[in-house]
Amino acid sequence: MLLASGKEETHSFLGYQFKYILKNRSYDTNHLIIVFSGFGTGSDFTYDFFGSLNNSCRAAVLWIKDDFYQNNLATYYMDVLGEDRLEQAVIGFIRKVQLFLEIDQQYCTLLGCSKGGASALYYGAKYNFKNIVASAPTIKIGSFISGIEPKDQPRLCANFICHGEVNSEKINQLDLRVIKEIDQDQAFDKNIFLISSQKDYIHNSQIKPFIGAFAKYNNFNYIESQSCLVRTHPDVTFFNTPLILSILNCLVFNLVPSFLNHVSIGDLPHKKAKVTKEPVFKAMKVDFDDESRFHPEGVFFLRGLACQNYEDLDYVLLLDSDTSQFKLDLAKGHKIFITKEYYADAFVNYDKAFFCTLGFRGLALDYLPQGFYRLSIEIIMETGERVISPFFYELDEKNISLNGKYELSTEDDILYLNIK
Question: Which InterPro entries does the UniProt entry name for this protein (predicted)?
């Protein structure tokens, strides 16, 4: 029995255990969005666009987890070479959901990014879905998972998809899977939205050579992002999420947008940022581990001063009591979200503006004498600037380590450490 519960469910179908989430439509919106997942950060399985579509989209949404063999290895929703059992199960499951919701195929949209984008194109062309939204799709599947084009580390799923032997013949067969269906598709009345960026390292090998193959479709839209904030493969989808949601919401209301070939342009890359040197501080984690090691982590930078390289800055944690002061060196982490989240008037690289402990192993405080310490943090820039900020943090409740020796508290949102 299918359940539109809005949370993960399991359904046995044609020999496979489908893990899925089905969100029912709201109001009178007669549309179904089917989401194929990309590669997750911790594993090969994820539910893409879950938060945004679950909270703001009126359409029914079906997320299918690419988890069919209980081995933590993705499949692109396709069979290993020479079979078609999984593919028939996937398309059959989609048809079953359509029937369950009483939504015709003409009111369906396939959505995916990266791996999921390739799957959306494959199923859309082969099984004649009219609406397809694909962000940064890895069209040449074999070359991508094997790490050949673009050159990269092979994906863990490569051996599994290729039946244990990744060779040129199998790679070539997989490379042709998606584009073959595009070439053979004679149903030109489709609305296809293909999103990419030249800054994406997969663009030249995985997308650019195939753009012309989509020209036959009545409403093919190639959207290329030119933005200083699109620097990596995942950035393409992250940056374009508002646009993707806008396209989906138009399709949901049967209002089909048309961009044709368009370049979306953000701030010019040579635009100079205002260098105010205003301190920006945000503590993201303050905790003790089971070995009573202290873990302070967060963001600290001076507005307008780049933190692109590890040598651009240093951090020192300061512990001040009535009688003494201790200085503890902190490490830096690479977090590209900082540059995006704190973007202001122009591009400044803050990728290394994340303070943490060396190897995220925490700080040993057992050598410090008893006392009540006020915490602050100093940033030291290679260019000479030195700024000390109170360690602002909001505790939900007092945090005591397992042995009861350390106690954290706040006063005026400034963090204090009591060593008993």
Answer: AB_hydrolase_fold (IPR029058), Asp2 (IPR022267)
- Sequence-distant (6+) residues with CB within 8 A of 255 are none
**What is the SS3 string spanning the chain?**
CCCCCCCCEEEEECCEEEEEEEECCCCCCCCEEEEECCCCCCCCCCCCCHHHHHHHCCCEEEEECCCCCCCCCCCCCCCCCCCCHHHHHHHHHHHHHHHHHCCCHHHEEEEEECHHHHHHHHHHHHCCCCEEEEECCCCCHHHHHCCCCCCCCCCCCHHHHCCCCCCHHHHHHHHHHHHHHHHHCCCCCCEEEEEECCCCCCHHHHHHHHHHHHCCCCEEEEEEEECCCCCCHHHHHHHHHHHHHHHHHHHHCCCCCCCCEEEEECCCCCCCCCCCCCEEEEEEEEEECCCCEEEEEEEEEECCCCCCCHHHEEEEEEEECCCCEEEEEEEEECCCHHHHHCCCCCCCCCCCCEEECHHHCCEECCCCCCEEEEEEEEEEECCCCEEEEECECCCCCCEECCCCCEEEEEECCEEEEEEC
For the chain, give every residue range classified as CATH 2.60.40: 279-419
- Mind listing the pLDDT tens digit for each residue in 370-419? 999 999 999 999 999 999 999 999 887 766 666 678 889 998 899 999 99
Residue 160 phi/psi, 5-degree rounding, is -65, -50
pLDDT for 115 equals 94
Count of residues for the chain?
420
- Low-confidence residues in the chain, pLDDT < 70: 40-45, 81, 264-265, 267-269, 398-403
Kindly give the interhelix angle for 115-126 and 168-184, rounded to the nearest 10 degrees.
50
Spatial distance between the Cα atoms of 413 and 415, rounded to a whole number of angstroms: 6
Backbone dihedral angles phi then psi of residue 214, each to the nearest 5 degrees: -90, -5
Domain 9-265 sits in CATH at: 3.40.50.1820
As annotated, the residues of the chain forming the CATH 3.40.50.1820 domain(s) are 9-265
Which of the following CATH numbers is that of domain 279-419: 2.60.40, 1.20.1260, 3.30.1150, 4.10.410?
2.60.40
In 3D space, the residue among 198, 197, 205 whose CA is nearest the CA of residue 147 turns out to be 205
Distance CA 150, CA 143 (A): 7
